[in-house]
């Protein structure tokens, strides 16, 4: 539900953001997220039927969901940076997201068990989630500033020369800036989708993998395991910071894909807790590809189209995620007794592909 409902609204929000105000897609999607978290809180607090959560998830998606939110954030980040430093700027934004996720994952297991043996177990965690969502919405409405380049008229945007002397993917710049190289943009889309297939499949199956043998972790250990995944945001940030000085965007993308593919292959043969953390450690640059693909695309299109293009990419990734979740969960159920690492092996193959 959360993956498909944004298809109805996210592109429209991206178009409105490009045309009227950059914060539209961010604030509307945050409002939907807040309402969804409130639905969770009321379900736990008043013991409402579980079906309420489907309505809350649909409401979140109809407000744009993560697709509209993150495409809006990436558009703001792209507009507020020069082409030469854009990859670093976008990975810094991803780093902040990752650090937040790390803190949340570390605390989630403890917060969930705060009211032990009580019928409202999880109430503290749900209340914290509502508080964070409320803060995010009001911060975006009242504090977040739009880069001044957005305030310029459309005429100014079309007349100012942007530095495109060096193409991000190593090819010469197009002769006509009005017509971006569609073939390169299409290939970047395909690369992002295939890689996302691998990543989403692994991330979706991982909690099930943690809970079952051979690991058989409890809630706190699962929280720590998920937190280990968020450290990838930090290592990927450091990777972009270093690699962007001497490598092209395409090279950085491939480094990230090889990093994730190798880690997924190791994950397939994990038997002990320490082996799990070694496999996650090998994935240290796994975040670089998608972020750098966004940066590469932003250098090939006009600033006035960022919202629409980024939301199309995010919707493509969201749709891919829905299909991947269904397929991977089926594969996991069919193979967990024979070879529990089948899904991770498949992800490794897709990543190298």
Automatic annotation (TrEMBL):
Membrane topology designation: Multi-pass membrane protein
InterPro entries to which the protein is assigned, alphabetical: MFS (IPR011701), MFS_trans_sf (IPR036259)
Family classification: Belongs to the major facilitator superfamily. SLC46A family.
Transmembrane segments: 24-46, 52-76, 88-111, 123-144, 183-203, 223-243, 250-270, 276-297, 309-328
Gene Ontology biological process terms from the UniProt entry: cyclic-GMP-AMP transmembrane import across plasma membrane; negative regulation of T cell apoptotic process; positive regulation of nucleotide-binding oligomerization domain containing 1 signaling pathway; regulation of T cell differentiation; T cell homeostasis; thymus development
The entry's keywords: Membrane, Transmembrane, Transmembrane helix
Top-rank lineage group of the source organism: Eukaryota
GO molecular function: cyclic-GMP-AMP transmembrane transporter activity
Signal peptide: none
GO cellular component, one term: plasma membrane
UniProt name for this protein: Solute carrier family 46 member 2
Main location: membrane
Location relative to the cell: Membrane
The encoding gene: SLC46A2
């Amino acid at each position: 539900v959360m993956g498909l409902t944004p298809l109805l609204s996210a592109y429209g929000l991206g178009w409105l953001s490009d045309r009227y105000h950059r914060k539209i897609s961010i604030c509307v999607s945050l409002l939907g997220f807040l309402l969804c978290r409130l639905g969770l809180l009321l379900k736990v607090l008043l013991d409402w039927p579980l079906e309420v959560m489907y309505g809350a998830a649909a409401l979140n998606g109809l407000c744009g969901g993560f697709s509209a939110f993150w495409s809006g954030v990436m558009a703001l980040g792209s507009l507020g940076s020069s082409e030469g430093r854009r990859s670093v700027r976008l990975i810094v934004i991803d780093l902040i997201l990752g650090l937040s996720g790390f803190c949340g994952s570390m605390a989630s297991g403890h917060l969930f068990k705060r009211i032990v043996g009580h019928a409202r177990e999880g109430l503290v965690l749900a209340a914290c989630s509502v508080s964070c969502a409320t803060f995010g919405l009001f911060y975006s409405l009242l504090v977040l500033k739009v880069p001044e380049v957005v305030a310029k008229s459309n005429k100014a945007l079309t007349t100012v020369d942007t530095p495109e002397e060096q193409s991000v993917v190593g090819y010469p710049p197009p002769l006509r800036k009005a017509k971006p190289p569609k073939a390169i943009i299409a290939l970047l889309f395909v690369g992002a989708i295939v890689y996302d297939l691998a990543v989403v499949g692994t991330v979706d199956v991982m909690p099930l993998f943690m809970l079952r043998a051979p690991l058989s972790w409890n809630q706190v250990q699962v929280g720590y395991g998920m937190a280990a995944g968020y450290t990838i945001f930090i290592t990927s940030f450091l990777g972009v910071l270093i690699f962007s000085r001497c490598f092209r965007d395409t090279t950085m993308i491939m480094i990230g894909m090889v990093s994730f593919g190798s880690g997924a292959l190791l994950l397939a043969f994990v038997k002990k807790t320490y082996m799990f953390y070694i496999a996650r450690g090998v994935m240290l640059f796994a975040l670089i590809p998608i972020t750098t693909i966004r940066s590469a695309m932003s250098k090939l299109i006009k600033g006035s189209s960022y919202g629409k293009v980024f939301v199309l990419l995010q919707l493509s990734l969201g749709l891919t995620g829905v299909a991947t979740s269904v397929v991977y969960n089926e594969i996991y159920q069919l193979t967990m007794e024979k070879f529990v690492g089948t899904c991770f092996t498949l992800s490794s193959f897709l990543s190298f592909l």
